[in-house]
Amino acid sequence: LEYTGEVVDEDTFEKRMDTKYANDKHHYCMALGGGLFIDAHRVGSECRFVNHSCAPNCDMIKWSVGGLSRMALFTRRKIRMAEEITYDYNFDNFNDLKGQICKCGARACRGI
After folding, report:
1. pTM recorded for the entire structure
2. Which pLDDT value is given to residue 90?
3. 3-state SS, one letter per residue, for the chain
């Protein structure tokens, strides 16, 4: 499942986080590397709605297509029918919030 959205540079991304998205409770974005970010706040695939878990069943992996970096979820194991798809956000705060309390329920939950 590919994580898609608008690819923007770091300055554009930070400006949006400080202005346009400053009051948003949920942030749909991902660091792509090389000073680029995928901004999926308003436009993006359903991958932006996949939840975090400290014991995920998928990994978000960077891969290359035609020389362009892409991000996509790949399973760690066979997913059971009706099982929620999750990955570890390795969360970084992009604003002044203290962080969101993790409620994944995993035995090894980090709490944030």
Report:
1. 0.82
2. 82
3. CEECCEEEEHHHHHHHHHCCCCCCCCCCEEEEECCEEEECCCCCCHHHHCEECCCCCEEEEEEEECCEEEEEEEECCCCCCCCCCEECCCCCCCCCCCCCCCCCCCCCCCCC
